[in-house]
Every structure is written in C-alpha cells, then in structure tokens.
C-alpha cells in the first residue's frame, strides 16, 4: 500500500470501518512505515485523551445571569455556528488530530454550558424555549413569565426580520443598542433572583415586569422600523 | 459664429444656476391658511425644530426656513383637517435641518411628529400629541389631554392637562402643573413630577428614577413600578393605604405608620390608611431600587 493512501485510511482503521483486506494491507504498510506508526500512535493517544475528558465542568462563577437574556440568541448562534462548522468539515480536508481536538473542545464547552444553566431542566419539563421554572414557583407567575418570554422571542424575530429589510434604520438600532442592554440586565437580575428564591413572593412579578418592559421596547422598535 | 450663438445662453444658464444655489440652500417659508379652532393639525419634520404658538385667529401661519435638500413643505387638507409636512427626497442623505415656526388656533387638536427636530409648544389649549425620536419636547400649555412620546429626547411639560401620558426610552421627563390622571413610562429616563393633585398615577421605569412632589387625592389609585430605579414620594401627608415592596432595596418612610420603623430593608411593607380617609391606594414595587416616602 502506498504511503499517502495509508495516511488517508488511518482514521477509518481506528474507527474499525475498513474491510479485512484493507486492514491487512494497511497493517503491512504501518509495520514498515515509521511516519504512519507515529501518526497512528498519536491518533490513539488523542482518542484516549478525548474519552477521558470530564463530561461536565463546573464553571468558576455563575455565568447564567449574564447570559440568561441571550438564551434564545445564544442557542440560535450555537446552532448556526455548529451548522457552519459541520459544513466546513465537509469542505475542508482536516487532519484527524485537529478535527478530534476541535470536537473535544466543542463537546466540553457544549456540556459545560448546559451544566452552567440551572434553568435548563430535563427535556420532559422544558417549555418550548427550553426554559423551566424553578421548583416551588407559583404556577401562575411561571406561566406569565413563560408567556412573556415567548412574546419576547416573537419580538426578536420581528425585529430581526426588520433589520434585514431596513438595516440602515439608525434611530431604531441606536435605541435598541443603548436601551435593550438596560432591560436585558433587569431581566437577568430578576431571573437570577427568581431562580435562587423561587418561593419568594413577587419575584416572578418583578421578572414579568422586566419582560413587559422588553416587550414594550421591542414593540416600539418595531413600530419605528415599520414607519422608517 | 454659430458657436458664439450658443455660448451666451449657456453662460447665462450657468450663471443662473450658480446664483440660484445659495437661494435654494435655505428657502424661506411664509404660508398662511384658514384653520378652524376645532380642527386637527398635524405637523411633521425630520430635523431642525418645530416651534408652535397658539393664537386667537382661525388660521395657521407657517414661517421659517426649509433646509437645503428638502423637497418641499407640503401643506394639505382644509380648514378642519390639515397636514404640514417637510417632504424629503427618497433615500436623502444630506438634507439640512428645517426650522418651522407655526402659529395656530389655540383650541385646535395638535399632532406633531419629528425625528431629531426639537418641538417647542407654547400658549396652547387644545389636546396635544407630540412625538419625537431624539428631539427634545417642551410644552407650556393648558391642554385637556397630552400624549408625549420620545425615545432619547428630553420631555419638559408644564401643562394644565388632566389626562397625561408620557413615554420615553432614555429621555428624562419633567412634568409640572399636570393633575388628574398621569401615565408615565421610561426605560432609563428619570421621571420627575412637580405639583398637581392626582386621581390616578401609573408609572413604570426600568432603571430610571422617579420622584413625585405633588399630592394624591384621597381616593387616588397610584401604582409605581421600577426595576432598579429609586422612587421618592414627597407628600404633605399620607392618607391612603400603602403597599411598598422591594426585593433588595431599602424602604425609608418618614410617616412612621403602623409602628413601622423609619427604615426597612428588603421585603414588603403595607399599611392601612388612617381612619376616615378615602379609598385611595398607593402601591410601589421595585426590584432593587430604594423607596423613600418623605414628608414635605
């Protein structure tokens, strides 16, 4: 077997996807080829290392308050980044060590981000947005919060659509750039408090109030965008 | 010889264009139209200013200057419903500000809309609806009803209105003389109310502070919500049932009602109105803002 073909087949060999005759040819080549032996050993070590990586990593600090309000966008971003990433995998010929290392890092980040989000509960309990209420929460308050979250997501979608149609609506974008972080910060703070003290009366109301402010701001931006 | 014959008109044309350019840079406006005292007048301008003053004539007069690049000042409608609009070319980029000075029947209904143009209204009695994106709005009037809306522009309202709605995003709001029913909403803009006796107040901010220095009718319903904005009520006395709630802020009350200490951190404080008072209720909710109930 020629060296360049053997190099191409090393990954499939480790995955056990080669037919017996090919395995025999490849092993024959590897016995004689120092480079292939080294590369095969490197791949084995990388796979073993990836398998030994922890399934979860506890973050040094609670990241959730800062990212709570970005959940939907964050998830969208992860999805689109992942799809782009997968497309690139198909387009470019990555070496296996690079691909595996990248996959391992992405995997660890993915699992750790899930574990950093106390709101994301078991799938069967998830709301459509993947957000659940903390235990002990007043169901009415939780329902109100979820309904307002859904309204915010709808507002985000509408604004996103407008931004594609009229990307140069400067007054709208300035307003959102300057004021939406204030509202998002309020949501993040109220949400963090609600999660930490779900039995505290009124916290769902504060969170709902912050969401209402966001819905109002979105509504205003949408009105302005439609008029511009 | 033939060439010379064309050169003179060409030179004249060029000279005419060159002479006309500075004149076109700022076109003077001077228009007068009949307008009823009960009419509705709408004014829109993008940038510059809109100064409006009420008078006792049944006509509207528009003066000022049309900014360079503006297409026209379009006045349409009749004596019962009129629109005054600064029309800009489509996709215009470099249009200079237009200054409008308008005198209008004092009792008509007024609707002004701008983007960055300031709005300044004086000596007016009719209902008003003023909105701007980044322009400041100032109104001194005796309007029955006022609806004011701004994004980042500041709002200053000295008005005898008994039904007032004010909404901004980051613009500060200062209100004087208003009474009756008040509704206010800001995100980060501060909200200051001075004077007036109110029967109904609904005010919400996110981070904006709210200060109320007026009076509450004994049957008033007042509800104030902020997230992190402080709330200060300066009152002569408190003759309403009160409910104050804060998650992480501090409550200070100088009225010492129901044995509640002057300062109380985090939680809900409620107290009943003194015997013989009306059925009014003041409710203040803030997530992390401080609440101060202060005696004048």
Q: Helix/strand-derived class of chain B?
A: mainly beta
Multimerization state: heterodimer
Low-confidence stretches of chain B: none
Gyration radius of chain A (Cα, Å) is 25 Å
In DSSP terms, counting alpha (H) and pi (I) runs of 4 or more, how many helices of chain B?
A: 1
What letter string, H or E per element, gives the SSE order of chain A? HHHHHHHHH
Secondary-structure class of chain A:
mainly alpha
Q: Main sheet of chain A, how many strands, which sense, barrel? A: none
Distance between the termini of chain B: 92 Å
How would you describe the shape of chain B? elongated
- Separation of the first and last Cα atoms of chain A: 67 Å
Tell me the radius of gyration of chain B.
26 Å
The backbone outline of chain A, from C-alpha atoms, is elongated
Main sheet summary of chain B = 5 strands, parallel, barrel
Q: How many strands appear in the DSSP assignment of chain B?
A: 23
Find the count of extended strands of chain A (DSSP E, 2+ residues). 0
Number of helical segments with 4 or more residues of chain A: 9
Order of helices and strands of chain B: HEEEEEEEEEEEEEEEEEEEEEEE
User: What fraction, in percent, of the residue positions of chain B are helical?
Assistant: under 10%
What does this structure look like?
The complex is a heterodimer of chains A (228) and B (296). With 228 residues, chain A is mostly helical. Helix content of chain A is 74%, strand content 0%. Chain A has helices at 3-14, 20-32, 34-51, 64-67, 71-91, 96-116, 139-165, 170-196, 203-227. Residues 78-95 and 105-131 of chain A have low confidence and may be disordered. Chain B contains 1 helix and 23 strands. Chain B has one helix at 2-25; strands at residues 27-34, 40-45, 48-55, 59-66, 72-78, 81-87, 98-105, 109-114, 118-124, 128-132, 137-141, 145-150, 155-159, 163-167, 173-176, 180-185, 191-204, 210-226, 231-235, 241-253, 263-271, 281-286, 291-295. The longest helix of chain B has 24 residues, at 2-25. Chains A and B meet through helix 8 and helix 9 of A and strand 20 of B.
